[in-house]
Amino acid sequence: MSRNPSSNLLSNPLSIGERRQRLRAVLAGTECISPASVYDPLSARLAADAGFEIGLMAGSIASFTTLAAPDIALMTLTELADQVRRITRASDLSMIVDADHGFGNALNTMRTIEELEHAGACAVLIEDTDLPVRHAPGRSGGELISLDEMVGKLRAALAARTDPSMVVVGRTASLAEGIAAAEARVKAFEATGVDAIMVTGISSIDEVEAMVATTSLPLFVGHLLVKLAPKDFAVAGVRVLFQGHQPLAAALKALWETYVALRNGEPTAALVAAPDDVARLVRSDAHREWQQEFLPH
Amino acid sequence: MSRNPSSNLLSNPLSIGERRQRLRAVLAGTECISPASVYDPLSARLAADAGFEIGLMAGSIASFTTLAAPDIALMTLTELADQVRRITRASDLSMIVDADHGFGNALNTMRTIEELEHAGACAVLIEDTDLPVRHAPGRSGGELISLDEMVGKLRAALAARTDPSMVVVGRTASLAEGIAAAEARVKAFEATGVDAIMVTGISSIDEVEAMVATTSLPLFVGHLLVKLAPKDFAVAGVRVLFQGHQPLAAALKALWETYVALRNGEPTAALVAAPDDVARLVRSDAHREWQQEFLPH
Amino acid sequence: MSRNPSSNLLSNPLSIGERRQRLRAVLAGTECISPASVYDPLSARLAADAGFEIGLMAGSIASFTTLAAPDIALMTLTELADQVRRITRASDLSMIVDADHGFGNALNTMRTIEELEHAGACAVLIEDTDLPVRHAPGRSGGELISLDEMVGKLRAALAARTDPSMVVVGRTASLAEGIAAAEARVKAFEATGVDAIMVTGISSIDEVEAMVATTSLPLFVGHLLVKLAPKDFAVAGVRVLFQGHQPLAAALKALWETYVALRNGEPTAALVAAPDDVARLVRSDAHREWQQEFLPH
Amino acid sequence: MSRNPSSNLLSNPLSIGERRQRLRAVLAGTECISPASVYDPLSARLAADAGFEIGLMAGSIASFTTLAAPDIALMTLTELADQVRRITRASDLSMIVDADHGFGNALNTMRTIEELEHAGACAVLIEDTDLPVRHAPGRSGGELISLDEMVGKLRAALAARTDPSMVVVGRTASLAEGIAAAEARVKAFEATGVDAIMVTGISSIDEVEAMVATTSLPLFVGHLLVKLAPKDFAVAGVRVLFQGHQPLAAALKALWETYVALRNGEPTAALVAAPDDVARLVRSDAHREWQQEFLPH
Predict the structure, then answer these.
(1) Burial (CB count <10 Å: 0-12, 13-18, 19+), residue B130
(2) D174 with D151: CB under 8 angstroms?
(3) Mean of the per-residue pLDDT values for chain C?
């Protein structure tokens, strides 16, 4: 944490509108960026201090950190929106928020958009998986909702948005059913007027190129089944690549090692951030200046 | 994270009542323990998996992680209680909760006790500092509320408690005003009927011994101004020693290094927990068993 | 509001355990009671002051008052649990809580039970309708989930309960599919071990008697399609009868008339409760006594 | 509830920015308006349907309805902001929000402004009383914070605001200390740059005129100690007059009468709103149209 955070972060952060424009610029550009996977105010602020401009609140990570539960749609919309708001007030990342299935049907999706827009999201992902799962693991098929139902959700999402600069992303897991199925979904999603498409489960660069060829919209990819270089995604026309959730996994490893060391009476000095870095991270100086400025002497 | 968590953690955790009895047993014992400093469901679960039985939600750490703000009483009681509840539902640590000044006057302290008891706290600390600060930094004196006011808060706290097994701790920062002042406060606190006393700002073993000699109640110490061995505290009669907040500081260091590595395109494999460990931490197996047990096949 | 509320309501309310026992006694008795439909702390307190011991937080009313939206599963579990908690802390009604479909699949139902038990519910209703609706209004059929799925939800609910005195009620809308269908569901619900059954859509006393004959469990009825005397339900063996939501409808009428009068500059004295009654309702005396008792003089 | 609510309320409400401009127009005008006292989504919607454009969330009413407790600063900022947000999402009233003492010192006041601005408040009142009270009732004096401290709070509030169209109101209870004291406070408040002043405890029209003469800012008055005609306030130059909280008091009276009637088995038909009016109030038609539009057929 040696890098100096922008000194005016608290007193003059980017407005939510400016953050949405920044994300829109990425989508309109020619690069392929990977957002920082963040999950609470401090992780978001560290990511911003490290140079990230775009953040991602993934559904899995939200469930892990809020409920200590796996990614099986146990978290409520209220919990997600509260956590997104905590993040957007503490850092000026442009936040992409994974809203799973929109927390129900198309009307729940409207409410999802409303609450996440209010919480300061810059982009909201709505996906076509049938959540929470209806059947025990092992049963094949039935994981996707019908295209008809999904198109209704996306149209509802767009109708519920009040700031047209917030990005609505239609996300599909249909590649598991073949390229033709995915192409049909991508085209139908685009026809609703959404701003971007996300395709998960990519297993080859050919699939990426097929998806890019199918739509004129910016493409997000994630949950890759093969390892491809980010550069290849840029060349292929992908704008946003989800690269996993190393930050939380690193924090967990450090926490574990620290608890074990403390338990064993071993030193922890090498494991921890310096007090000054922590103080800087929570903007102690800015708060002290406000105390000097606004409290009686 | 190689240690096996107790396999029945979710399906049969300790009840809140049992956790309170466990903490009471520590206070009635002859050891001096240090609670694990935790701040969210996963940190609490890791601490429990590492062998800790007692956890601490410190006011500073709560403010850092919820608001990304320093420890200056900006957090609301609602935010603190919600976070404590998230922790107590995800692990079976016996949680000590730092409730600062009780979030206002004696009646706010009653509400503080009510909300934290409901959230599953096993012990609640109420301190005699005047929060939030009235004056700009640098002005000396005036940091403590009157003994009269503090005694009222502690009596109110005890009246508001509905489960008598929950521990109410009177915490004093009065050592800064000398041993005589601290002794007077400790005696007055004990006379209210609180279950334990915490003294901060210890600068010598003599002070510890003076405090122990002043009261028959279990003693907590923290915010030490000198380095003393935990063993010395046990010998002196201290039951709970706060040893700082290395876990969050370690997580922040790991997050920073990971964001920098990702930003620079460097590998992160050495920094992160194994996927299996993360899956175990969020109890993926238990949830899958529930899916097999309760969802249609 | 002329009736004197119990003077010790705040300082010594019934514990949640005692409230659950009180509801269990009703279910084990020979009367048929109707709970008070309540929706916030003050309505609950008024109902208790008027002599009600059992309260009902209906799904429709929760949606109306929290979201100003119709009863179409837009409310989150977090919002419902928070509202139930606000009610249980302010009055000592034994609360029956309508939890719709358990907010998702069987695992969401587990979380529903966990959160509502923590909020102080005495009984939780889980119903077999497919919510939120999948299709536009007008399409017939498909409103019920399969019996298999519903049985899984009820078994999951029972597994998630930690206080066995909390009542889990299996609720079915299957009478719309005929008596035979309803009988099959009631028997299957009973076999899971739930504590009571609720049947909605009753259109004759014969149907009531058929349901009572089908199960040895206490029966709840509601959403009646015919008008029957409460006495007839008692004789038939029903223990709990939902009689609609007049209280909120009365409050809305009074609010409307008051806003219109204020808008027109007309007097409102005849419409409003006396200030003393309002002061008594918010327990001004008890709080003043606490101020005298616990604040410095 | 016979008046037709605006049919497009949900699909096209006023934006928060437009509501703030509407309130600003009132403050810049020559009328004296009284806001509708509202406390939840339905009361706000009824007030709007009855023709009110400006609403008031009073501190007392917020405490009554959320906690069933008197107006003694027991409610948290989180609870207030959540309730304001529920109101602003369900109606398009321009909301004036009473934020008491700013929930602590000047830095807490900054957070108060931040949270209430985010919740959609159009005006926030910050007052110069010392809350929560430090001493038991009956002790005279000490109810006001120093002018120095209050000026710091108002300057902090203005610094924390990100939308300059949101109105910050400095409220003073200093008339109890005489006109000269009040004049000094009003002038000092104006010098901070706040947008309006509120004076409570008016006991004569002379006092009103003295206050108007003291400042060029729009004046709010409330908590009157004498009965004066609204017209007189307009002539005197007052822009906003708080006239009490009849709506909640009317709802409580109606609830009480209804619970008593239900308890006694008496009819309630004359007490309650018609089902169609309730359905219209929760916008059943709009939601049904969305179901037709966005759900599969």
Answers:
(1) middle
(2) no
(3) 93
Q: How far is D188 from chain A (nearest CA, A)?
A: 15
Q: Which two tokens stand for residue C64?
A: 């109306």
Instruction: Identify the residue whose tokens are 């509708």.
Output: D36
- Chain B to chain D Cβ contacts (< 8 Å): 38
User: Which chains sit next to C, with 3 or more Cβ pairs under 8 A?
Assistant: A, B, D
Task: Tell me the β-bridge partners of A127.
Answer: A171
Residues A3 and B257 sit within 8 Å (Cβ to Cβ):
no
* Contact (CB<8Å) C134/A149: yes
Q: Kindly state the average pLDDT of the residues C123-128.
A: 98
Strand partners, C126: C170
Asked if the Cβ–Cβ distance from C281 to D252 is below 8 Å, we say yes
**Contact (CB<8Å) C72/A107:** yes
Which residue, D274, A149, A145, D288, is CA-closest to C72?
D288
DSSP state of D265: T
Question: Whole-angstrom Cα distance, residue C82 to residue D111?
Answer: 23
Q: Which of B107, B148, B296 sits opposite C149 (nearest CB)?
A: B296
Question: What is the distance in angstroms between the CA of the first residue and the CA of the last residue of chain C?
Answer: 33
Q: pLDDT band for position C141 (50/70/90)?
A: low
Task: Read off the pLDDT of residues D102-124 as tens digits, 9 standing for 90 and up.
Answer: 999 999 999 999 999 999 999 99
Q: How far apart are CA D171 and CA A149, in angstroms?
A: 53
pLDDT digits (tens, 9 = 90+) for C235-246: 888 999 999 999
Task: Please count the helices (runs of H) and the strands (runs of E) in chain A.
Answer: 12, 8
Q: Which amino acid, one-letter code, is at A62?
A: A
Tell me if A91 sits within 8 A of A83, measured CB to CB. no
For an interface test with B, give the residue of C294, C295, C297 to mutate (most B CBs within 10 A).
Answer: C294
pLDDT tens digits, B27-69: 999 999 999 999 999 999 999 999 999 999 999 999 999 999 9
CA distance B88 to chain A (A): 11
ipTM of predicted complex: 0.95
8 Å CB contact between B152 and B125: no
Report the amino acid identity of residue B167: V
Amino acid symbol at C281: L
Ramachandran region, residue B194 (left: φ > 0; alpha: ψ -120 to 50; beta: rest)? beta
pLDDT mean across residues, chain D = 93
Task: Name the minimum distance, in Å, from the CA of C149 to any CA of chain D.
Answer: 23
pLDDT band at A224 (very low <50, low <70, confident <90, very high): confident
Interface test mutation site (partner D, options A88, A290, A294, max chain D beta carbons within 10 A):
A294
In B, minimum Cα distance to A47 occurs at B259
Pairing verdict, β A219-222 and A196-200: parallel
Alpha-carbon dihedral sign for residues A9, A10, A14, A16: positive
Q: Across the interface, do D108 and B74 touch by the CB < 8 Å criterion?
A: yes
Give the tokens for residue A65.
């950190």
Token code pair at residue C106? 């069987």
